[in-house]
From TrEMBL:
Protein name: DNA-3-methyladenine glycosylase I
Record lineage: Bacteria, Bacillati, Bacillota, Clostridia, Lachnospirales
GO terms for biological process, alphabetical: base-excision repair
Keywords: Metal-binding, Zinc
InterPro entries: Adenine_glyco, DNA-3mA_glycosylase, DNA_glycosylase
Length: 191
């Protein structure tokens, strides 16, 4: 029997590896959740394959998105980021990453952890969808609207509803692997 993946994962080896090993798996590690939140913001207006191609350079430039380091980036460091051709050179996205690192600590003070904050919206269990085609998969939902609004109230930037929904998909809060995805859907369905 041949393996069938979600159609978006057929475009490149990088996307296939991401699909097979990360996308949709529940993540509860605060560092990984924060990293994905920033990466989803970096992706806004671009393709995820662009982020995957630049992943090593992004992680290197942003100190692996460790909030305790990123929160200390000053103007000189941010200026160096904007001159780094290996990453996404968008001033608003750079500023948002540093801002969000600072807001991360306030959010943790208020909610205990980013993990608790995010996963409380789904009662700690992934939402399991049963989409047949990629066209059925929404770009955002009322739940991602709600989380986006609260993140903005908490002072976060680049956390629109579409970005938040992409985050929810990537960290497994919602399982949007197509029902025909024999590679991942049956496994994640059991969670």
């Amino acid at each position: 029997m041949s393996i069938k993946r979600c159609s978006w994962a057929d475009k490149s080896k990088l996307e296939q590896e991401y699909h097979d090993n990360k996308w949709g798996r529940p993540v509860h590690d605060d560092h990984e959740l924060f990293k994905m939140l920033i990466l989803e913001g970096q992706q806004a207006g671009l393709s995820w394959s662009t982020i995957l191609k630049k992943m090593d350079a992004l992680c290197d430039a942003y100190d692996d998105f460790r909030p305790e380091k990123l929160a200390l980036f000053d103007e000189a460091k941010m200026k160096r980021l904007l001159s780094n051709s290996g990453i996404i050179r968008n001033r608003l996205k750079v500023n948002a990453a540093v801002n969000n690192a600072k807001m991360y600590f306030k959010l943790c003070d208020n909610y205990g952890s980013l993990d608790h904050f995010l996963w409380s919206y789904v009662d700690g269990r992934p939402i399991l969808n049963h989409w047949e085609t990629m066209q059925e998969v929404p770009a955002n939902t009322p739940l991602s609207d709600e989380i986006s609004i609260q993140l903005k109230k908490e002072g976060f930037k680049f956390v629109g509803s579409t970005i938040v929904y992409s985050l929810m998909q990537s960290v497994g809060m919602v399982n949007d692997h197509l029902a025909s995805c024999s590679f991942r859907f049956p496994e994640l369905k059991k969670l």
